[in-house]
Amino acid sequence: MGNIIKAQKGTKDILPNEIGSWHMLEQKALEVFTSAGFKEIRTPIFEATELFARGVGDTTDIVNKEMYTFEKSERSLTLRPENTAGVVRAFIENGMSRLSMPVKLWYKGPMFRYERPQAGRQRQFHQVGVEMFGIKEPTADAEVISLAVAYLNAIGLNDLDVEINSLGCPKCREEFSKNLRNALRPYLEKMCPDCQSRFEKNPLRILDCKVPECKEILESEELQNVIAKDYICDECHEHFEKVKSYLNVLNIKYSVNKLLVRGLDYYNRTVFEIKSNNLGSQNAVCGGGRYDSLVGHLGGQDTPAVGFAMGMERLKSLLPETEVKPLTAYVVCDNSEHAFKLVNELREKGISADFDMTCKKFTKQLEKASKIANFACILGEDELSKNEVSVKNMLTSKQITVSRDDVVSAFVQ
Ligand code: ATP
Ligand code: MG
User: Fold this and answer.
1) Would the pLDDT of 280 be above 70?
2) Residue 282: pLDDT over 80
3) Which residues have CB under 8 Å from 297's CB, separation 6+?
4) Among the atoms of ligand 1, which is closest to the Cα of residue 314?
5) Which of 72, 144, 206, 231 has the highest CB neighbour count under 10 A?
6) Would you state the pLDDT for residue 400?
């Protein structure tokens, strides 16, 4: 006998007893996003490595440490760690910039990141997200944030903290980076190696560091003062104020978190994160923001854009356990031909039905029916000779007799 092969660390089977929640998450995404005019897009699971290096940014953890990269025919390929880069590539490649704006897209599917697995953190996980192209006005930021909240509410999550921040434009960011560098320089030696390399390349990223020593430095009064100062220019300031006023109009509660910088290198202006109060340390369920330079950066015509992604495993962990729905009918019969025929007639009318393929004893078949179905449709010798079916309600044990010709329509009502 061979060794048992197990699923890879950080990957999980989604089993039949939990699939109901996944169907619900996917169905609600379709409903909520469609109702706001978003259309689904499905992009490939693997892409050229360069797409992520350029599209996510080479100062990010995703690109530096977390990518599943492999070679095939001398090409470097990567399993997508997120889907914004793929959607932007598809937007450019399929000439969507010629469509009338906005172009509103949503997606769902598996993503891959080589991370340390823990609760709420896997190596293969699923995201659902939206990307909206072509609108530079703050209405788009508010629309996308409100859509995220609408989706979370639709799946039954209401205890949420929406955090927003503005990173400003590259000009404002330069000013912030300069001040941050000056304030951090005396502590540089005490910081983690990642932050030391972020210091020159992208000091804002240090705000996102999860290493306790670095966090402590950031929490010092001196650093907090630098972070709290407003660096954003007048236009960026006005944009952010408008986003906030739309959120107020929409009755969406939010707080401003100046430490929020988000994972992509190409975010500008509005960034946001939604946390759930029911999750432990991995409590972020949604992250998003505006990325006006990404389409241009990936070779397309400059197009403003804003979007978000949510982690579906984390959403799932917040939902109540769902019961596996039983079958409507279980056909009890020791003649497989009759059983097959009735089961198929029921299924054709959309009534879930099954039967015992091994013709066990009637008592065994009834036992099985009581476990997996609401009704047993009994086709015994007696019933077959009279062209009837006994229908037994497995909950109440009440039994009635119906003509064989009418039994399917009796279930349809
Ligand atoms: P974190 O700070 O938790 O690592 P992130 O900033 O890397 O999150 P994003 O790239 O913004 O996450 O992805 C959006 C959402 O996807 C996150 O808010 C989270 O819910 C989910 N997510 C990210 N990485 C994982 C993972 N490894 N396993 C499960 N869900 C994840
Ligand atoms: Mg991460």
Assistant:
1) no
2) no
3) 54, 55, 266
4) 20
5) 144
6) 94
**For the domain 327-412, what is the CATH superfamily, name and number?**
Anticodon-binding domain (3.40.50.800)
CA–centroid distance, residue 62 to ligand 2 (Å): 7
- The single residue listed with the structure tokens 């599209």 is 55
* Amino acid 281: pLDDT: 62
Residue to mutate, 121, 124, 131, ligand 1, most ligand atoms under 8 Å from C-beta: 121
Taking the CA of 287 as reference, the closest ligand is 1
Asked if domains 16-169+232-317 and 327-412 share a fold, the reply is no
Half-sphere exposure in the Cβ direction for 3 (13 Å, CA): 3
d(C-alpha 84, C-alpha 92), whole Å: 12
Which atom of ligand 1 approaches the CA of 129 most closely?
14
CA 242–ligand 1 middle distance (angstroms):
28
For 215, the enclosing helix (H) or strand (E) is helix 212-219
* Domain definitions of the chain by residue range: 16-169+232-317, 327-412
Cα–Cα distance for residue pair 297/291, rounded to 1 Å: 10
pLDDT in tens, 170-180: 888 888 888 88
CATH architecture, domain defined by 16-169+232-317: 2-Layer Sandwich (3.30)
Angle of helix 221-228 relative to helix 170-184, nearest 10 degrees? 170
Convert the pLDDT of each residue in 115-155 to its tens digit: 999 988 999 999 999 999 999 999 999 999 999 999 999 99
Q: Which atom of ligand 1 is nearest to the CA of 82?
A: 10
- Output the CA 268–ligand 2 centroid distance in Å: 19
For residue 262, the CA-to-ligand 2 centroid distance in Å is 9
Is the distance from CB of 304 to CB of 351 less than 8 angstroms?
Answer: no
The mean predicted confidence, pLDDT, of the chain is 92
Question: Which ligand 1 atom is at minimum distance from the Cα of 285?
Answer: 20
Query: Is the predicted pLDDT of residue 294 greater than 90, yes or no?
Result: yes
Give the binding-site residues of ligand 1, using a 6 Å CB cut-off: 82, 113, 115, 120-122, 125, 127, 263, 282, 284-287, 309-311, 313-314
Angle separating helix axes 138-154 and 234-249, nearest 10 degrees: 40
